[in-house]
Amino acid sequence: MSNPNPEFPKGPVGPASFDRPALSEARELIESQGLRFEPDFDDLVGLFESGRLVACGARAGYVLKMLAIAPSHQGTDALGGLVTKLILSAIFAGHTTVFVFTMPQNVASFEALNFRLLVTHGQTALLEHGPGLENYLASHAFQITQGHNGAVVINGNPFTLGHLHLVECAAKRVDRLYLFVVREDRSVFPFDVRFRLAQQATSHIRNVTVLDTSRYAVSAGTFPSYFLKRLDEVATAQMQIDLLLFAERIAPRFHIACRFVGQEPLCTTTAAYNKMMAEILEAHAIEWVELPRIEAGGLPISATRVRKAFATNDVETLRALVPPATLEFLQSPPARPIAERLRSKMEEA
Amino acid sequence: MQIRRKASAGTMQSSDLMVVVEPSDTLRVEIESTVKKQYEHLIRARISSTLEELKVSAGYIQVSDRGALDYAIAARIETAIRRASEE
């Protein structure tokens, strides 16, 4: 049955209600719409009509995903109801701003629900609902200075002498260096620790400002792939969205003219990522600068090496790899549970 | 009335609005609307007058509107505030 006038959505045909659907019926509806079912989510909502599941969607943290509507109910306001439930669920879980990653052809449907488009590329579009990016930029407005500025983006898990070397070299080449610490908490060292150590270790460099990336660094951990046809495209799509978000939305507001990265002689994934970064940034007139890594004991310094030495309580090695601020934290009582977690992870591996 | 906890009212369906209120030291109203360009000033005015009537002077109020009429705006705001002020 087609809707004669799409301006006026059809009302519900039978008694409609929201409920949590069974995994199997949700999966069936999601897959029938050409999407992939991803089992990791915090909430799953279904719209039922006369007992039949006609629409469903899920939320993982602040990310909405797997929104699927049965063909019989496309062109109705099912999406509005579903998104209301998911956004409220996110807000009550503490996420005022909500993301949705979807196909570019769905952008208009989400814009009609007050989502704003952040970035779109290839088969992927990222939109947000809530105070979001504008609020983030406004809250950092007082730290923005004019000039030829640079950026370094790190996870800092934890902050090493390698990070410090990169920041020191980069800071010499720009008026102001923004050191972005990735907010997302999927690392062993929690965000507040990673952020504080980056601040303490760089406090002696006068033109460095340490910033929180908030939601605006899209990692493999938050990027859903349910809408992509091919799994081998997922990593590329995630990196492109992350880099475009930086190049189009973040960099211009902070007057960032170059981005610095540490050379990656070992890891091939990071090397591929760096090549893509160079291309995307240059297309946005942002210079991409790769700086050589420093070594300790004949090997490049990396956070991976630090975590290993920390787990085995190898203080001598740690001294050669981390700045005093990090060393002090690693030897403090709050660091003990982190060492425990690292040890159990290493045993698993 | 005092906003004591997080509460919501309404939906994001066409011609409706979703209101979420939560405690805050100051009064802050954030409006998203599909008709923001044309009607933000009227939406804001109606929200302000409703808050005044209810004697609400502090809170964080988030509104996502899809072209609701002004009495719907007043009703949704009032419902959310009443839910948030319950002990």
Oligomer status? heterodimer
Structural class of chain A: alpha/beta
Q: Return the CATH architecture of chain B.
A: 2-Layer Sandwich
Mean pLDDT over the full residue set of chain A: 92
Largest interface: A-B, 17 and 17 residues
Give a brief rundown of this model:
The complex is a heterodimer of chains A (349) and B (87). Chain A has twelve helices and 14 strands.
Characterization of this structure:
Chain A is of the alpha/beta class. Chain A folds into 2 domains: 16-130, Gcn5-related N-acetyltransferase (GNAT) (Aminopeptidase, 3-Layer(aba) Sandwich), CATH 3.40.630.30; 136-348, HUPs (Rossmann fold, 3-Layer(aba) Sandwich), CATH 3.40.50.620. Chain A has 12 helices and 14 strands. Chain A has a 7-stranded mixed sheet with strand order 1-2-3-4-5-7-6, sandwiched between helices. A 5-stranded parallel sheet of chain A has the order 10-9-8-11-12, sandwiched between helices. In chain A, strand 13 (295-296) and strand 14 form a beta hairpin. Chain B has one domain (7-85): Ribosomal Protein S5, domain 2. Chain B has helices at residues 36-53, 70-85; strands at 7-10, 17-22, 27-33, 59-65. A 4-stranded mixed sheet of chain B has the order 1-2-4-3. Chains A and B meet through helix 2 of A and strand 3 and strand 4 of B.
Explain the layout of strands and helices.
The complex is a heterodimer of chains A (349) and B (87).
Chain A: E1 16-19, H1 23-32, E2 43-49, E3 52-60, E4 63-69, H2 78-92, E5 98-102, H3 107-111, E6 116-121, E7 124-129, H4 132-139, E8 149-154, H5 161-172, E9 177-181, H6 191-202, E10 208-212, H7 234-250, E11 256-262, H8 268-283, E12 287-291, E13 295-296, E14 299-300, H9 303-311, H10 315-321, H11 324-330, H12 336-348
Parallel strand pairs in A: 4-5, 8-9, 8-11, 9-10, 11-12
Antiparallel strand pairs in A: 1-2, 2-3, 3-4, 5-7, 6-7, 13-14
Chain B: E1 7-10, E2 17-22, E3 27-33, H1 36-53, E4 59-65, H2 70-85
Parallel strand pairs in B: 3-4
Antiparallel strand pairs in B: 1-2, 2-4
Helix pairs in contact in B: 1-2
